[in-house]
Amino acid sequence: MAAVLVRPLTDEAERLMFTVERRIIDPLQEWEPTGDAVVVCGPASAHVGNWLVQRDPLLTMTIGDGARWGIVDNETGERFVSPMDDPEPRRADVAYLARHVMPSGAVVVHIAGLHALGSVGAAHYLTEHVAELGEESFSMVLSSEFDELTPATLKVLVPPRRWPR
Asked: What is the model's pTM?
């Protein structure tokens, strides 16, 4: 699964003339990016995933009934959950995608699927739409349906919303 996710991200970053350094983050390590970065993990996977989601004023990731993770739109109260966790699971997932402009000026892109497939879908969305997403902090929610490990459809559930300054 890692190669399916990492390859499109590294290819796109290199196409945009970035130098790519891949790091595996220890879930117990309290690591925070010191420069521009793409972080792929949820709040339960590593400290940095939780730290980044906590910075978001518009969306949160929470555990609900039956230990089922979801993404909550703080403005509407709508909660998005993974179809993989339904009683009759589908090969589809939901993901969080955000761009953090840090106080230092560094940019951290954060991808967090409710499952790994959601992160794959978000990575594909990012590579196809990076030019449209602008340069300010934002967050969004999207869903993906899959044919094996390839996203067959990508759908925006919460469009990119700029964060208040």
From this structure: 0.89
Show the domain range for 71.
Answer: 2-17+43-162
Q: Residue 66 to residues 20, 62, 86, 114: CA-CA distances in angstroms?
A: 38, 12, 11, 14
Do you know the residue count of the chain?
A: 165
Spatial distance between the Cα atoms of 20 and 38, rounded to a whole number of angstroms? 10
Q: Which residue has the tokens 């978000």?
A: 122
Buried b or exposed e, range 70-95, using 16+ CB within 10 angstroms: bbbbeeeeeebbbbbbeeeeeebbbb
Total domain count, the chain: 1
Indicate whether 95 belongs to any domain: yes
The string of pLDDT tens digits covering residues 68-86 is 899 999 999 999 999 999 9
List pLDDT tens digits, range 8-55: 667 766 776 566 677 777 778 888 888 888 888 888 888 899 999 999
Residue 26 domain flag: no
Q: What tokens were used for 56?
A: 């978001």
- Strands (E) located in the chain: 37-40, 59-63, 69-73, 79-81, 92-101, 107-113, 138-147, 150-162
Domain presence at residue 34: no
Nearest to 69 by CA among 44, 49, 88: 44
Tokens of residue 131, six digits: 């030019």
